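stage 2 :: seqdesign
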């Protein structure tokens, strides 16, 4: 049962994002989309919404709007969506319960023959974002990797079943760089590309999970460098170049990850001309799965904006990749990637 109905009548429904983030309670919560809270089932987590009380000027309080053990009322969800409010909140210690519920729902949605591929894709993209958040927050925990493998399996099935194009895959992509979106986008595009170039069906999810986790080592580096809103100094760049090895070192203990996936993590910055890092491998020494991911990784990074750099258009990105940067890539794969993107 809905605890109360104050939200529907509230005049303070729209609390701006900054005020929410400045709340001393914000760090206790994870933001999730109201569309991913399942309907018609008893929830295994509480759902919160930040509100400013009319009488107080002291920031926001997170009000519990649905109790664990109750159902999320469709009426409330519709109300949020009609008002273009997407974010609700779950407590960090119940995030895993939320994830289990939303991933189960995602699997059902993917297998529903009546939903259109774009809608399915939007839901998988959001769920992949939740899982990435869990992995980046705690890269050593196995649970996030298990969830990522679950998503990659379902997403691969979806790509094969619907023959999705690169433009549909990238329909919901973020244009602003952040590690979460970049990880998901590289995974989704790599899986689409691997299918396009007819990689064996059982190898595609193996490549996909490697692509999903390719930058996980960045989670071990100082946040000030990773999120620096300006060009990196030479010294900082040197620190960044440690991330393939760091990622590999975290992931090599996970028994469920295959060698091809781990090769992607450690080799995705190796270049065809031998000038890459960390090991300066030559083209024939680089796992083809890592050669594929290297192309997609560069493409995705260049088409996203940074505070100090505007995003390039897909066309301009490919132009640079095929000219100034061409020594970096396997030329045959790059040619196929251009065709995959529809140019
Ligand atoms: Fe990287
Ligand atoms: Fe990357």
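stage 2 :: out
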């Amino acid at each position: 049962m809905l605890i109360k109905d104050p939200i529907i009548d509230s005049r303070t429904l729209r609390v701006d994002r900054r005020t929410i983030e400045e709340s001393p309670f914000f760090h206790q919560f994870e933001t999730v989309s109201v569309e991913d809270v399942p309907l018609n089932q008893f929830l295994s987590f509480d759902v919160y919404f930040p509100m400013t009380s009319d009488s107080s000027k002291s920031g926001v309080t997170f009000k519990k709007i649905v109790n664990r053990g109750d159902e999320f009322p469709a009426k409330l969800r519709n109300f949020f969506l009609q008002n273009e409010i997407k974010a609700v909140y779950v407590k960090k210690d119940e995030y895993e319960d939320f994830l289990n519920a939303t991933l189960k729902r995602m699997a059902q949605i993917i297998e529903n023959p009546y939903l259109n591929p774009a809608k399915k894709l939007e839901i998988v993209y959001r769920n992949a974002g939740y899982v990435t958040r869990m992995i980046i927050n705690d890269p050593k925990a196995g649970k996030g990797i298990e969830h990522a493998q679950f998503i990659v399996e379902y997403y691969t099935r979806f790509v094969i079943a619907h023959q999705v194009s690169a433009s549909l895959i990238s329909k919901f992509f973020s244009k602003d760089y952040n590690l979460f979106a970049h990880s998901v986008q590289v995974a989704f595009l790599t899986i689409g590309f691997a299918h396009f170039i007819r990689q064996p069906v059982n190898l595609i999810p193996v490549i996909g999970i490697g692509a999903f986790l390719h930058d996980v080592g960045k989670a071990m580096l100082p946040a000030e460098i990773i999120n620096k809103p300006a060009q990196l100094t030479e010294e900082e760049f040197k620190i960044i170049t440690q991330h393939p090895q760091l990622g590999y070192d975290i992931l090599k203990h996970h028994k469920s990850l295959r060698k091809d996936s781990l090769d992607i993590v450690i080799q995705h910055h190796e270049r065809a001309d031998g000038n890459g890092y960390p090991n300066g491998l030559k083209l024939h020494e680089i796992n083809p799965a890592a050669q594929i991911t290297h192309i997609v990784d560069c493409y995705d990074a260049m088409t996203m904006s940074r505070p100090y750099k505007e995003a390039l258009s897909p066309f301009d990105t490919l132009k640079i990749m095929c000219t100034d940067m061409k020594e970096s890539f396997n030329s045959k794969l790059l040619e196929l990637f251009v065709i995959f993107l529809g140019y």
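stage 3 :: structure notes
- The chain has a mean pLDDT of 92.
- Residues 111-340 form a domain with the Hypothetical protein af1432 fold (CATH 1.10.3210.10).
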